[in-house]
Amino acid sequence: METIKGPAIQLFNFAEAISISRRSPEKLFKILDLHDALMDLMPDIDSVFQMKTAESIRVQAAEILSRLGEAARGILSEFENAVLREPSRVPVPGGTIHPLTRYVMNYISLISDYKQTMNDLIVSKPSAGSRDTSLAHLFMMNNVHYIVQKVKGSPELREMIGDDYLKKLTGKFRQAATSYQRATWVRVLYCLRDEGLHVSGGFSSGVSKNALRERFKAFNAMFEEVHRTQATWLIPDNQLREELRISISEKLIPAYRSFLGRFRSHIESGKHPENYIKYTVEDLETAVLDFFEGYPVSPHLRRRSQ
């Protein structure tokens, strides 16, 4: 590892310099070659530089791989814009093949040699760390809903789109709303389950106070994080925003009320119950009203009781 550390960094620096150079269409294929070569090397890089002291090299390689992918996407976008900006309005002699047609088709033919790489870089969904899954579903819901409302408000658009496809789009934004709720709230509601709280001893059974305290702490932390981030997210349509809040409340509030009703006494009989039961049902109802307004809120929930 020590022997090849220096040359490896030099090699990565070269790839990094290429990834940040000026983006022009003719560079795409060399960048894709570099990307594929580095991708093939990643297992060896992880193996050779597996020691904790070499973590920075593994991180650098992964970052450069990501930058090369971003450069390829950017170049393809530049290529598209260059075609759209083509100013030629002069008819070609005798109606023959336009030079732009020839250039574009030759370019696309070359791209086809990199079909799998391009599919991974462009068609595939963002990786788990690069975009919040809940936010991705919310984005899809907002945008498809906007399209549906525009089409519904225009007889001409509606006729052009057709009711069958409009129905498909409506289903798509509703599915995105469902996916958002699943991605966000399943893990929050999971804290309010009974499993793992009960203990048995001899002829009696009871509730583990330690497990219950941890469960309340986990719920508080998760809900506070969701509240903090998703208050800054925005649903511009008032009706859609209200519908989603109601749907969240219908899942969250009864589950929390039930959990609180069953286990409140176990916490209140111990020390510092306020550290674990931080919120009333009314506090959560108030907090849900902050969601999707598009502006930051206090890091702690507003407590109606205060």
TrEMBL record:
Biological processes, Gene Ontology terms: exocytosis; protein transport
Protein name: Exocyst subunit Exo70 family protein
Pfam families in UniProt: Exo70_C
GO CC, alphabetical: exocyst
Coiled coil spans: none
GO molecular function, one term: phosphatidylinositol-4,5-bisphosphate binding
Functional description taken from the UniProt entry: Component of the exocyst complex.
InterPro entries membership: Cullin_repeat-like_dom_sf, Exo70, Exo70_C
Highest classification ranks of the organism: Eukaryota, Viridiplantae, Streptophyta, Embryophyta, Tracheophyta
Domain Exocyst complex subunit Exo70 C-terminal: from-to ranges: 131-289
Family of this protein: Belongs to the EXO70 family.
Keywords tagged on the record: Exocytosis, Protein transport, Transport
